[in-house]
Amino acid sequence: MGEVIVVTSGKGGVGKTTTTANLGAGLALMGRRVALVDADIGLRNLDVVLGLENRIVYDITDVTGGHCRLRQALIKDKRFEGLFLLPAAQTKDKTAVSPEQMKALCAELKEEFDFVIIDCPAGIEQGFKNAIAGAEKAIVVTTPEVAAVRDADRVIGLLEAAELRDPKLIINRIRPRMVRAGDMMSIEDIVDILAVDLLGVIPEDEMVVISTNRGEPIVQDEHSRSGQAYRNIARRILGEQVPLMNLDEGGFLARLWRRMIRG
Amino acid sequence: MKRGTPEVEDNTILIRRTLRSGQKVYYDGHVVILGDVNPGAEVVATGNVIVMGTVRGVVHAGAGGNEKAMVLAFRLEPIQLRIANHITRSPDGPLQKPTGPEVARIKNGVVTIEAYSP
Ligand SMILES: Nc1ncnc2c1ncn2[C@@H]1O[C@H](COP(=O)(O)OP(=O)(O)O)[C@@H](O)[C@H]1O
Ligand SMILES: [Mg+2]
């Protein structure tokens, strides 16, 4: 029986889809069977990030509407053995799927997969409620910006109210040089406010944009730091203790890491 | 410790968690929070507000006009703080972080923040 994880944030454009794609690919690289669910209905793009757009025949609303079976709608990834995608509908709106349908869908998927990862739409409206309905765990993504952290905090409150306790945090697009200059919130500042466990930190990296445009998840790039950061997160999800990467921020990363493994 | 008005003396609610952005507490009495009040969260009480954590959001003590009400916190860095009908807001520039517990109350007609010493 697998686990169902929703990737959410509140604010748009912080890296939910990038994170979903890379964690899915990363876990598949480590031999797990993973289903990715694009719950951003009407703004489909997980398929594009994974380079699978040309294989879509059915989408999530065809499954919930009974037009096809789940197995028919799942697209097998072309590179990663064990990785599958359930695409979002491009043309429907967020009410095309109900929370009950999402729950049933997730229950069916976790029978067959080790991980079911749901890419949540931005916002806290119906699309968000649908995306979290079938989830047992949550990953909250934020960038080191005041507005993004504020929205992450709001979402953590809503997740807690929905009994999704102990969400894990990913901080994306950190720029160590700006943090050092005092021009960007530090990891420590963010964890201090949000008070949840830190799952990982992804540096700002233009290779993410390039790989995304090519439909090739960065996690498979042995030489990139962001790819390494995503591989580290995948290993942590599998229960390994992997220290935070040194992003040239000296002592406090190590301190923070100690706090993480204690807490 | 200075006392609130007698009529709310025994009327205290205990909140055992952090108030996150978008969460609000309104209470006719004193409020004690075992956690933080994050940016975007709001606490309104007719009596005192005591936060065993950091206040970064909005806190209103003495709502309804009690000028003797106070706000006490381990770290007081509010976006806005109100006592009775008085309002103060954080300075627009970078603020000096407090290093210990502080108490805010009305002194000579203005909201005054001082280090708290029992
Ligand atoms: N670590 C990063 N460094 C640089 N660009 C990034 C990083 N993470 C995400 N991006 C870019 O930011 C944009 C938004 O990311 P996306 O995953 O689509 O966000 P969301 O799904 O939260 O709206 C994309 O163009 C993506 O390539
Ligand atoms: Mg997205």
Explained architecture:
With 263 residues, chain A is α/β, with parallel strands linked by helices. Chain A contains twelve helices and eight strands. Chain A has a single domain, classed as P-loop containing nucleotide triphosphate hydrolases (Rossmann fold). In chain A, helix 1 crosses helix 11 and helix 5 runs parallel beside helix 6. Chain A is globular. The mean pLDDT of chain A is 92. Chain B is an all-beta fold. Chain B starts with 11 loop residues before the first strand and ends with a strand. The model of chain B has no long low-confidence stretch (mean pLDDT 90). Chain B has one domain: Pectate Lyase C-like, CATH 2.160.20. In chain B, strand 8 and strand 9 form a beta hairpin. Classes of the chains: A alpha/beta (263), B mainly beta (118). At the A-B interface, helix 7 of A face loops of B. Magnesium ion (MG) binds next to helix 1 of chain A.
List the topology elements.
The complex is a heterodimer of chains A (263) and B (118).
Chain A: E1 3-8, H1 16-29, E2 34-38, H2 46-49, H3 60-64, H4 70-73, E3 75-76, E4 83-86, H5 99-112, E5 115-119, H6 126-133, E6 137-142, H7 146-161, E7 168-174, H8 176-180, H9 187-194, E8 197-203, H10 206-214, H11 225-237, H12 251-262
Parallel strand pairs in A: 1-5, 1-6, 2-4, 2-5, 6-7, 7-8
Antiparallel strand pairs in A: 3-4
Helix pairs in contact in A: 1-11, 5-6
Chain B: E1 12-15, E2 24-27, E3 30-33, E4 42-45, E5 49-55, E6 58-61, E7 70-76, E8 80-83, E9 86-89, E10 102-107, E11 110-115
Parallel strand pairs in B: 1-3, 2-4, 3-5, 4-6, 5-7, 6-8
Antiparallel strand pairs in B: 7-10, 8-9, 10-11
The structure holds adenosine-5'-diphosphate (ADP) and magnesium ion.
